[in-house]
Amino acid sequence: MKVVLVAAVALIDVDGRILLAQRPPGKSMAGLWEFPGGKVEPGETPESALVRELHEELGIETWNSCLAPLTFASHGYDDFHLLMPLFACRKWNGIPHPKEGQTLAWAHARELRDYPMPPADIPLIPILRDWL
Ligand SMILES: Nc1nc2c([nH]c(=O)n2[C@@H]2O[C@H](COP(=O)(O)OP(=O)(O)OP(=O)(O)O)[C@@H](O)[C@H]2O)c(=O)[nH]1
């Protein structure tokens, strides 16, 4: 089974809310809410991949030093095994806006379970709730 490394981030605002992005129609798992991020490309670290993805997906700027390791997901999908480190980030420049057709939502930790998420993300929700 192919292991795919995807870096993801919980962006946390001053009110303690977390940014979720809804996968647009046409993509796999369309309609589900996920943490911003994406595949780590050859030559990238998880942190540098996130800095790139946050710029491409949301138009914000952040730095490796602002990405703190929080937890990870390890989940077997039908066609690949997802290994997804989840970072926490409270500091960035700019206002996140959807640049790739996503819908964005800021959710309090207690509201996270109201947003349908990919199966890999489900175990992360109580971890975030306890941590925040
Ligand atoms: N960014 C992100 N990806 C996630 C999360 N949970 C989860 O299962 N994934 C999966 O990790 C992969 C992320 O890949 P990607 O962001 O680079 O690529 P993509 O959406 O174009 O995916 P695709 O190759 O499935 O079309 C997708 O298969 C996505 O479904 C999450 O919380 N955030």
TrEMBL record:
Pfam families reported in the protein's UniProt record: NUDIX_4
Keyword vocabulary terms for this entry: DNA damage, DNA repair, DNA replication, Hydrolase, Magnesium, Metal-binding, Mutator protein
Known cofactor(s): Mg(2+)
Record flagged with keyword Endoplasmic reticulum: no
Keyword Electron transport: no
Gene, per the UniProt record: mutT
Classification lineage: Bacteria, Pseudomonadati, Pseudomonadota, Alphaproteobacteria, Rhodobacterales
Domain Nudix hydrolase as annotated: residue spans: 1-130
Family as reported in the entry's similarity comment: Belongs to the Nudix hydrolase family.
NCBIfam families found in the cross-reference section: mutt
Organism this protein belongs to: Lacimonas salitolerans
GO molecular function list: 8-oxo-7,8-dihydrodeoxyguanosine triphosphate pyrophosphatase activity
SUPFAM superfamilies, per the entry: Nudix (SSF55811)
Catalytic activity reported: 8-oxo-dGTP + H2O = 8-oxo-dGMP + diphosphate + H(+); 8-oxo-GTP + H2O = 8-oxo-GMP + diphosphate + H(+)
Source domain of life: Bacteria
Protein name (record): 8-oxo-dGTP diphosphatase
PROSITE patterns in UniProt: NUDIX, NUDIX_BOX
Annotated EC: 3.6.1.55
